[in-house]
Design goal:
Blueprint (H helix, E strand, L loop, with lengths): L5 H4 L4 H13 L4 E8 L2 E7 L14 H9 L3 E3 L17 E9 L2 E10 L7 H18 L8 H13 L4 H16 L3 E7 L5 E7 L3 H5 L3 H10 L6 E3 L10 H5 L4 E9 L2 E10 L7 H32 L11
């Protein structure tokens, strides 16, 4: 046990370790806090002496964010001289911050602020605190995974902010890979001529998925034409008519319909070379992702059509004069 940081050393969970290290640092004076990266944002895990805290900022923003982004410790004797300083409360004068590194990766920071001055050895004290915290976090099994619902919410929110079809498709495919745990994903649907094709694909199987033909995609679409999802976990015999899965070296596949106005307008497909068992919680998340993707694509298409109408005469198809 580290005698300087006994509470943090004795912790058995990440939460206890963070609470313990700020309690230990509280005895040194100043206002201590711990921030850890959670789903790409720095979240305050514990703090002492503040009547409010700053939370949810990305790496690179503020003193703490810059420390996490650079992996380098900083001591600021006068925060008025630091333009990137973000004040959690009024009257702060000095700040020191060091990164928390687990297995070579910066996962957060230990920070201390003061209304007066900080001790000359504060950087060394914080480095020991950060090392103790890192050891406790690693002993507890590392940072806990971000909950599926939180990851889904982040992806859906990002989709609602997009208005271009290409960017929506790219975000949907990236999100599907993240949520499903499968290696690859594709977005497909019929064109104006009614021919089905893959519009967007990503992952190791992307080139293979893009080569699926109109006939192949129509077979896949038939699995979900009632508006329900379909999941092939793999590991079993491929039935007649599904040979294209063998040609594509697909071990498992999950398909979500894109539904607009009660009609299936496309498919959001995830795939992997290995068998992946069905998980209804993942399936439900992908279902919601597909619903938002369909809505976002419909909105983007409508915006594009309205923009074209504003520029072009509907009778002559000539562009209007500026």
């Amino acid at each position: 046990m580290n005698v300087r940081f006994p509470r943090c050393s004795a912790a058995s969970t990440v939460s206890e370790a963070c609470e313990g290290v700020v309690d230990d640092l509280w005895e040194y004076g100043g206002l201590p806090s711990v921030y850890l990266l959670v789903d790409g944002r720095l979240r305050c895990q514990a703090a002492r002496g503040y009547f409010q805290v700053v939370d949810g900022f990305p790496p690179g923003m503020g003193v703490i964010g810059r420390v996490v982004a650079s992996g380098e410790s900083v001591v600021i004797p006068d925060v008025a001289s630091a333009p990137h300083f973000i004040a959690a409360i009024p009257g702060l004068n000095a700040e020191a911050c060091v990164p928390v590194t687990v297995r070579g990766r910066v996962i957060g920071a230990v920070n201390v602020e003061s209304r007066t001055t900080l001790p000359e050895d504060i950087c060394g004290v914080l480095e020991v605190a950060a090392a103790t915290l890192a050891t406790s976090i690693e002993a507890a099994g590392g940072l806990p995974p971000v909950h599926l619902s939180q990851r889904l919410a982040r992806i859906v929110v990002s989709l609602t902010s997009l208005t271009e079809v290409e960017r929506i498709g790219a975000r949907a495919v990236e999100g599907a890979i993240e949520l499903s745990g499968m290696s690859s994903a594709a977005l497909c649907g019929p064109g104006d001529d009614g021919i089905w094709s893959v519009h967007r694909a990503s992952g190791p199987l992307a080139e293979t998925l893009v080569r699926w033909t109109d006939d192949d995609l129509r077979v896949i679409a038939s699995w979900v034409d009632a508006g329900t999802a379909s999941h092939f976990p793999g590991g079993g015999e491929i039935p007649s008519g599904y040979e294209f899965l063998l040609r594509a070296d697909v071990g498992s596949i999950a398909v979500q319909p894109l539904v607009v106005g009660g009609l299936v307008t496309g498919l959001l497909t995830t795939a992997d070379i290995r068998p992946v068992p069905h998980d209804f919680t993942v399936g439900a998340a992908l279902e919601l992702l597909a619903a938002q993707t369909a809505a976002s694509l419909a909105t983007a298409t409508a915006i594009a059509e309205l923009s074209l109408r504003a520029l072009q005469d509907p009778l002559t198809n000539l562009y209007n004069a500026a």
